[in-house]
Amino acid sequence: MAQTNSVGQGSNGVADESPNMIVYRKMEDVIARMQDEKNGIPIRTVKSFLSKIPSVFSGSDIVQWMIKNLNIEDQVEALHLGTLMAAHGYFFPISDHVLTLKDDGTFYRFQTPYFWPSNCWEPENTDYAVYLCKRTMQNKARLELADYEAESLARLQRAFARKWEFIFMQAEAQAKVDKKRDKIERKILDSQERAFWDVHRPVPGCVNTTEVDIKKSSRMKNPHKTRKSVYGPQNDVRNHSPTHTPAPEAKPATEEELQDQITYWGGQLDRHRLKMSKVAESLLAYTEQYVEYDPFITPTDPSNPWISDDTTVWELEASKEPGQQRVKRWAFGINEVLKDQVGREQFLKFLESEFSSENLRFWLAVQEVKKRPIREVPTRVQEIWQEFLASGAPSAINVDSKSYDKTTQNVKDPGRYAFEDAQDHIFKLMKSDSYSRFIRSSAYQELLQAKKKMFWRITLPVLLAGVLCVATETRKPRPQGSIPSPFKTKGNLSDRQRLLPRKPEVLSSSREALVVTERRYLRRDWCKTQPLRQTVSEDGCQSRTVVNRFCYGQCNSFYIPRLMGPSSNRGPGSGRKNHNKAQEPFQSCSFCRPHRVTQLTVQLDCPGLQPTFRHRKVQRVKQCRCMSVDVSGNGKL
């Protein structure tokens, strides 16, 4: 089967080859105490209907033994420790691929020491292929492949297509050897081998405990190399070398070196650090917030006039009124308001109503200075100083003394960034006070509701104009392959003739009707994919939000009847005829439905339950289309 690490088979064993060996030894000491004949966990053979389950014990037995013999008072702590040991493969559930400990009657079995992780197993994909292939040769329910194992077998078969015959021969030879073993022994060995591969090829979503930290591995290979870290140089190698090789004596540090270390540690204390989990969480929240405004992910509404015939965007721009999405975006942060021209105007109008617009006007004036030609900057800097910061200024702003003193020095040599400190101070004041009041104000809420009405006020005339254009086109002479209009008229008819009843035009055949339908109606199908947020929850667990998609649109359908079949007599003189047999009609019924669907597994944290997590499967829609469905019953309603 799999091969052990040949590097670790020296006289000292493998203890020096794995950085996790200390953890393995501690777990193996606990396992040895569990297997003690007197004070260990009772192992028994359970009888079930027409079968026996040999050498098993329950999960509650493990929890009770840990509480009694390991001085553990909390049951949750005992379950956590047992789950860690099960994840490393020291004992395993006999009927589940997920290696966790449950405090119930689930049966578990100890792993043989041959398969312990302390032996530094490094199984290859060919070994895994032989194992899976052998499982398929044994027609037993307990040896059937799980879904993820079947996918792995198919992937390995494609990867090793050239030597698959050799792999199959190995699997066949191992299966013959297994058949010669005793039934109980074979059952135990099969479960232990399955648990071994559950550790080294875990179920998707489970932690792989055999992965080695690359930093620990590098440190083991170079024990005498001085380690460098963000906390400064560390010259004491004896703290890192597993072989405890004595290091050369370090020279006493000089006064200058000590002073440099003090300066370095002081800088490290002031250094700002962020956890990677917090950074990832912030990035996900930002992506979910702006996904509605990303045209590559979410179709724009109204659509882009350069790639469609919809000119609603130009109508909105001409009216100088922001759309609902644009107003809604102002609530994301003050930066969204300040970089939008209409947002700045509305914000300034709100501050003027509260007689506190000088801060925003100062901020805008400083931004405008940065874009002016260099020859106009000194004059404009003096104007801003006289208006906002000089003693007796008509629109004086409130800045702290530190920013004021620095700005005073900068104005003596005016430049584009003379007011940088004062501008930053004013920006913080607006962000913490003025902006929050603007978002909560009734003026912003009324503006947000007014945009909903304004959108329909602008788009409704456009839609009516489109309907009139379509109606005008239908009154033109019908070309070949188009649907006849019931309002068709000729230009040389008098008013009296137009008022007379007219016969509708008749198509020549059902085939022509089919062509007409496909050209005019089916090509007008539309089906859109729209993102939405869904909450995945379960009792006792913390809910999570995922981004899914839903389908909506208008898909057309049609029904064209066919001719009846020929009739025939049963025989001479019978006087009775068979019923006419109808041919299948031309019909199609389309729905806006998912075209591509994937399945997403979401892990929910459940602090008060055991285990402390749950998996929920969510159907995620990738793309929607108008898709025809089979209509049975020969068109009968």
UniProtKB/TrEMBL annotation:
Q: What is its main location?
A: membrane
Q: Where is the RGS domain?
A: 333-448
Domain DEP intervals: 37-112
Q: What keywords were assigned to this record?
A: Cell membrane, Cytoplasm, Disulfide bond, Membrane, Secreted, Signal, Signal transduction inhibitor
What is the annotated localization of this protein? Cell membrane; Cytoplasm, Cytosol; Membrane; Secreted
What membrane topology does the annotation report for this chain?
A: Peripheral membrane protein
| GO CC list | cytosol; extracellular region; neuron projection; plasma membrane
Its GO biological process annotations read:
G protein-coupled receptor signaling pathway; intracellular signal transduction; negative regulation of signal transduction; regulation of G protein-coupled receptor signaling pathway
Q: Name one GO molecular function term.
A: GTPase activator activity
Cite the record's Low complexity compositional bias ranges: 242-251
- Give the start-end ranges of region Disordered: 213-257, 475-496
What the entry lists under Pfam families is as follows: DAN, DEP, G-gamma, RGS, RGS_DHEX
Q: Where is the composition biased (Basic residues)?
A: 217-228
**PANTHER family in the record:** LP21163P (PTHR45746), REGULATOR OF G-PROTEIN SIGNALING 7 (PTHR45746:SF7)
Q: What is this protein called?
A: Regulator of G-protein signaling 7
Q: What species is given as this protein's source?
A: Coregonus suidteri
